[in-house]
Amino acid sequence: HSYPAGVAWQDGQYIPVSQAKISVLDYGFLHSDATYDTVHVWDGAFFRLDAHIERFLAGVERLRMTLPVSVPEIREILHNCVSLSGYRRAYVEMVCTRGTARDFSRDPRAATNRFLAFAVPYGSVADDAQMKRGLHVTITNTTRIPPSSVDPRVKNYHWLDLIGGLFDAYDRGGETALLLDSDGNIAEGPGFNAFSVRDGALITPEHGVLRGITRRTVMEIGHEQGRTVREGTLTRDALRSSDEVFITSTAGGVMPVTRIDGAPVNDGAVGPVTRAIMSTYWAWHKDKRFVEDVVYPSQETK
Ligand code: PMP
Question: What is the role of the protein in this entry (predicted)?
């Protein structure tokens, strides 16, 4: 059967995503004690699925959780969620939560970890108009949770700083937010990494950020295009005075930024380096190196 609103897998069953449920006693809900990953399906095929599963497994291990499913099972579950959904463009999430412990124990070791997954329609940080003219970003004074508190390499639901930053950005006329690290340098935003372009070279923050798969893809594209690619400190001023700025996420890919704190970046137009990287990013969706699990071999579904 097909579930137009998306399909979830939970406790061995495929169900409409609207019916997937988590216990109010689950540590994932009560304490954000969970890790997850999101991968996208484009034109009926997964993009860099291996990299996403690898990052997910690393997160599960760092949180000292035990997955109740094997890696081949995860692949099968994700594949089936997509094929049952019928979506050729999907956003696919896998989640491992600490779960619940008997007798409401406070000891996380006593909990039974849970896995669930779902496929929903593909979504983007930037809408069509913003993709064309570039996003207007506000650098917020809310600082990102420091890496000494929560390991940013573990993809997690500790989003209150990101959400607070987003509201701060809206209040100040921005469309999305960039958060600073505790030294006042650029970290990341709600669901994306940031890049600055200067003299054709790419610079992206190194510390206190999720190692985004799109970020990695863009760094590889940069190398293939013969650019200098640097992970390092990116100050507010350096970002504002960039030739070009863009952000990266599974949800939208490479997205141009043309205004920061109300002021245009350079001439305020989407720049040529950003365009070249966006174009290669989407070209790589047809490249056998990165297209990893074809759900629909023919144009049989929507
Ligand atoms: N930073 C954060 C905090 C994120 O949640 C995400 C992904 N949603 C990213 C960066 C971008 O990572 P990716 O390119 O792997 O989607």
Answer: Acts on leucine, isoleucine and valine.
